[in-house]
Specification:
By secondary structure, the protein is mainly alpha-helical. It is about 90% helix and about 0% strand.
């Protein structure tokens, strides 16, 4: 209850002061100017903070230069890695081609061997090399 009484008293006082101010143009103007002054001080503080956080042109140039150098190093590193990967892919493609060629040669040899075995079984040819591989 005590807080409610204080709140009521402050609300009553505020109402009385507002009523008194409505009749006094000078007080209204003073309040308006005080609010404007407060807003301008806040804006000034904000601008000062921004100004302090801004870099000088030389500092900004150095920071940008450092950023460019760092990005160039990253690009060079990526280029090097890309070339290494290209070389690995090329080497693997060559190895795959060799394996495919060997497989093709083995398939040709297998077909020739099957043909030889078929002819060995169908014809009475005594070929010792063919009889070693045919079952």
């Amino acid at each position: 209850m005590k807080l409610q009484d204080e709140l009521d008293a402050l609300a009553s006082k505020q109402s009385n002061l507002e009523a008194e101010m409505q009749h006094d143009m000078m007080k209204q103007e003073a309040v308006r100017l005080y609010e404007k002054l407060n807003d301008l001080k806040q804006k000034q503080n904000q601008l000062e903070e921004e100004d302090q956080s801004n870099l000088s042109p030389e500092q900004e140039q150095q920071q940008l230069l450092a950023t460019v150098k760092s990005l160039n190093q990253e690009i060079s590193s990526m280029d090097r890695q890309s070339k290494e990967l290209d070389d690995k892919v090329r080497a693997m493609q060559e190895e795959l081609q060799q394996v495919e060629d060997e497989l093709e040669d083995q398939e040709v040899n297998a077909v020739e061997l099957v043909d030889l075995c078929v002819s060995y079984r169908t014809k009475p040819v005594y070929n010792s090399s063919a009889s070693d591989y045919c079952f």
